[in-house]
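1st attempt posting a full record on here, be nice pls
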Amino acid sequence: MTNKIAIQMDSIETIDLEFDTSFMIGLEAQKRNYEIFYYNPHNLFYDEGVVKASGYYINLYENNLNYYEFKTKKIVVDLKNFSFIFIRQDPPFNMNYITTTYLLDLIPGKTKIINNPTSVRNFSEKIFPFKFSQYMPPTIVSQNLDMIKKFLSQYKDIITKPLYGNGGEGIFRSTIKDKVLNGINSNKNILDEPIIAQKYLPEIIEGDRRIILIDGEYAGSVSRIPLKNNIKANFHAGGIAEQTGLIRRDKEICLALKNILKKEGLFFVGIDIIGDYLTEINVTSPTGIKQINALNNTNVEKIFWDKLESKYNIV
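the predicted structure (as tokens):
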């Protein structure tokens, strides 16, 4: 089991090296002499009492054209034989994603899973912030179209977004002048799924700050500035990275989250703050460390591994 890790992630063939944090975590592990086993979520399975995955041992390289190679043919492994397993596939957080957390829960505790699959399942990224509602903008979650319309009537300018997506998909802004809820089927009074609606924060033009917390501690941050006339600051939606530190209420919010993140095994977390307001707590596959490194001449993946090895007494 010594010096072996597994990374559960999306297809390595199609990752974007400009933004991919999983690759950086894996590369740093390789520098520390860990063997890396890579598999896709659909190749995780339960076999008569044993949780297994089919995938490949891989090498990683700092080369944009040839950044990985398979060391083996596709093989099946028993996941209890690894020191660490990293849950790193992107949402949508659907039943397939949830099922992987149930299966990973069955692996014996000597194998450490980052983040804790029970907590990944229980702490929804857009609902988890409700535990810290004093730091949130006015927010509702509902399937009822009339309720969402009343929320728009009250606040005049709102953002609506799906609860379980990623990368800025499905986010719309609606104002009282629009007379419609953009991106929402107004023919249904009860929507197919609940959505989240929040008061629009004009501070978004200053950026959406992604703050990385490792074992509850601040490790770095970056401001994601949306393109002109765009409400989406996510890097995948074209957001521009700018340097930032902890400003406004950032320190206070980080401190408020620290104990619960440590208690629940949420070792690697990315929180999003607009102005003074906490909007998301990303526990599935947070990104942003490459931009943080470039802007601050730091190495967040080294901090990640230093803290992880120290926490679990890995020599």
